[in-house]
Amino acid sequence: MITRRRALKIFAAAAILPTASFALDRRYALGADVSMNLRGPDEITTAARAAAWTEIDRIENLFSLYKESDLTRLNRDGVLRNPAPEFVELLKLCDTIHRATGGRFDPTVHPLWLAHAHGGDIAAARANTGWHRVEVTHDLIRLADGQSLTLNGIAQGYATDRVTKILKDHGLTHALVNIGEYSALSGPWQLGLSDPAFGQLGQFTLSDRATATSSPAAMRLPDGTAHIIDLTGASDIPQWSTVSVCAPSAAIADGLSTALCHATAVEIPLIAARLDVPLTIRLIDLSGNLRTL
């Protein structure tokens, strides 16, 4: 099972609104602990919460690698006809981040990940990677022979964005959504940044923004390889112990936090400029030093 340990921890919720009730839901979905911290009148939070969980179930049925889904069917059959609009939308975003990161973000890493995890042929698995070989249209998604995709580096962020929008559409103005990544309606919400090797190294506040964090060393595959793999060939060893990204979108933050683990300090500002969205990037290097871009 592919998992990504997240390093963000909530230290304190924003002050409770004087006339608002409080609801905190927790479940497990998309390979992550999921929670929604909602502030508002009962008649709003009840309906919003139900709609949010329905959406989480629907997104999991599209993108999960842990249960039968549209993604597992695509990986098994090599083709998905008449894909859901959300599937196409997410793959288009994958393409945007793939291009912006010079190929460091690449969902076709899945066969290589499995080879490292299960003692497979590394060279053969690497030959089956390559985002340029994936065909995406509104009518069809097709993989090249031997390919399979993992969306674990972005699907949780995408689900976080979808749920946040649903809560907002239901009239909530104060909420914190956590589906492996965090998205805030209003705030401030105070979060702490921790690293698997160096512990807690900082705190920051989140208001009307999203954040995602990746730590390569948080999980190692059986052969010792860090679970975040760079397909560009530029670096077998991650450049950073932890990367945390704040962005307007949790999906963008999610994809970037994955890709930037192998990017150099010189490359990261160039990658951020290509996306042309406001970003805050926090980097913990291999010696435990924290810097913010």
Structure description:
The chain is of the alpha+beta class and 293 residues long. The protein contains eight helices and 14 strands. Strands 2-3-7-8-11-12-13-14 form an eight-stranded antiparallel sheet, with helices on one face. β7 (174-179) and β8 (182-185) form a beta hairpin. α1 (42-63) packs antiparallel against α6 and α6 runs antiparallel to α7 (250-259). The chain is globular and about 55 Å long. The two termini are 33 Å apart.
Terminal residue distance: 33 Å
Rg for CA atoms? 19 Å
| Number of DSSP helical runs | 8
- So what's the overall shape? globular
Class by SSE composition: alpha+beta
Features:
8 helices; disordered N terminus; 293 residues; alpha+beta; three-stranded antiparallel beta sheet
Give a brief description:
The chain has 293 residues and is an alpha+beta fold. The protein has helices at residues 42-63, 70-77, 85-100, 110-118, 122-127, 155-169, 250-259, 267-275; strands spanning 8-12, 21-29, 32-40, 79-81, 135-136, 140-142, 174-179, 182-185, 189-195, 199-206, 210-214, 240-247, 280-285, 290-292.
Fold blueprint:
Blueprint: E1 8-12, E2 21-29, E3 32-40, H1 42-63, H2 70-77, E4 79-81, H3 85-100, H4 110-118, H5 122-127, E5 135-136, E6 140-142, H6 155-169, E7 174-179, E8 182-185, E9 189-195, E10 199-206, E11 210-214, E12 240-247, H7 250-259, H8 267-275, E13 280-285, E14 290-292
Antiparallel strand pairs: 1-9, 2-3, 3-7, 4-6, 5-6, 7-8, 8-11, 9-10, 11-12, 12-13, 13-14
